């Protein structure tokens, strides 16, 4: 599978199952509404990529680059995203359920109305981010950096 074939499958409404995208560059592509089941996104570059209303179930996103990505209303369930770079991303109305996000960087990201439920967020960074009405339910923030975050 290639990045463009995956994009075509998403546009046709086909779920992406049990694939490896390791090392791919998906910068600026549009995967809005995509359904990703047990997909390996380790080390993938998704800078400025669109994943609005996408669903990620049991995916691995170790060290993924999601800087400036559009993830509005995206849903992550039982995913691992340690050390993910989400700097400047838009995650408004997103949901993270039972995800592992230690050391992830949400600096300057918009995380308004986002829900973190039973997710691990130790050592994550939300510096200068917008956390309007963000919910952290049973989601430890041990050692997290919330400096200059907007907590309305």
Key terms for this structure?
152 residues, mainly beta, single chain, 1 helix, 6% helix, seven-stranded parallel sheet
Tally the helices: what do you get? Answer: 1
Uncertain spans, ≥5 residues at pLDDT below 50? none
The strand count comes to 7
Q: Estimate what percentage of residues fall within beta strands.
A: 5-15%
Task: Describe the protein in words.
The chain has a seven-stranded parallel sheet with strand order 1-2-3-4-5-6-7. The protein is 6% helix and 13% strand. The protein is globular, with a radius of gyration of 14 Å. With 152 residues, the protein is mainly beta. The protein has one helix spanning 3-11; strands at residues 16-17, 35-37, 55-57, 75-77, 95-97, 115-117, 135-137. The longest helix has 9 residues, at 3-11. It has one helix and seven strands; from the N terminus they run H-E-E-E-E-E-E-E.
Short description:
The protein has one helix and seven strands, in the order αβββββββ. By secondary structure, the protein is mainly β.
Please specify the SSE layout and strand pairing.
Elements: H1 3-11, E1 16-17, E2 35-37, E3 55-57, E4 75-77, E5 95-97, E6 115-117, E7 135-137
Parallel strand pairs: 1-2, 2-3, 3-4, 4-5, 5-6, 6-7
């Amino acid at each position: 599978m290639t990045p463009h074939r995956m994009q075509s499958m998403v546009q046709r409404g086909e779920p992406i199952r049990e694939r490896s995208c390791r090392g791919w560059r998906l910068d600026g592509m549009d995967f809005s509404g995509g359904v990703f089941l047990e997909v390996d996104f380790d080390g993938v570059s998704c800078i400025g990529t669109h994943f609005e209303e996408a669903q990620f179930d049991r995916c691995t996103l170790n060290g993924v680059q999601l800087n400036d990505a559009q993830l509005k209303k995206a849903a992550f369930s039982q995913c691992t995203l340690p050390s993910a770079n989400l700097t400047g991303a838009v995650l408004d109305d997103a949901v993270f359920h039972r995800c592992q996000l230690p050391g992830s960087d949400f600096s300057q990201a918009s995380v308004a109305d986002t829900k973190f439920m039973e997710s691990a967020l130790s050592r994550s960074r939300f510096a200068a981010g917008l956390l309007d009405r963000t919910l952290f339910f049973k989601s430890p923030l041990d050692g997290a950096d919330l400096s200059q975050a907007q907590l309305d």
